[in-house]
């Protein structure tokens, strides 16, 4: 999987969050899902949605007389790609320390789930 473009700015991040939550939406549906202070003009939201689509973060499809926008990838895939790109550019020691700090912020149930997911990934790769 290639590196996905990064979300740029708070409004793009809020729009992506709305679409990850609702799955798909029109300009007005996305606009109504934004936090109160972020729901700008219809044309502003439409412009940002189109830019996100042009950059490959969203898909857009005409349904009847309207355009419906959908995330081009899951939120988990996006975050995973962004983390991987960031960690790949760091030294080995910085990478380990950053991951340790992230794990330290998780509650015990999340750490257990992470352990299980890591084991599953090792098994899929064929390593013990």
TrEMBL record:
MF (Gene Ontology): DNA binding
GO biological process: negative regulation of DNA-templated transcription
Statement: the UniProt record of this protein carries the keyword DNA-binding: yes
Keyword Methyltransferase found: no
Cited InterPro entries: BlaI_family, WH-like_DNA-bd_sf, WH_DNA-bd_sf
Keywords, in A-Z order: DNA-binding, Transcription, Transcription regulation
Superkingdom, taxonomy of origin: Bacteria
Family assignment from sequence similarity: Belongs to the BlaI transcriptional regulatory family.
Name of the molecule in the record: BlaI/MecI/CopY family transcriptional regulator
Organism: Yinghuangia soli
């Amino acid at each position: 999987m290639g590196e996905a473009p990064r979300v740029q700015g708070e409004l793009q991040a809020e729009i992506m969050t709305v679409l990850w939550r609702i799955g798909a939406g029109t300009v007005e549906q996305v606009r109504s899902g934004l936090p109160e202070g972020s729901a700008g003009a219809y044309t502003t939201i439409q412009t940002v949605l189109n830019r996100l689509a042009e950059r490959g973060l969203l898909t857009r499809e005409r349904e009847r007389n309207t355009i419906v926008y959908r995330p081009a990838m899951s939120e988990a895939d996006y975050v995973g790609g962004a983390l991987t790109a960031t960690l790949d550019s760091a030294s080995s020691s910085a990478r380990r320390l950053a991951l340790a700090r992230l794990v330290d912020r998780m509650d015990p149930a999340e750490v257990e789930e992470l352990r299980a997911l890591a084991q599953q990934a090792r098994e899929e790769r064929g390593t013990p």
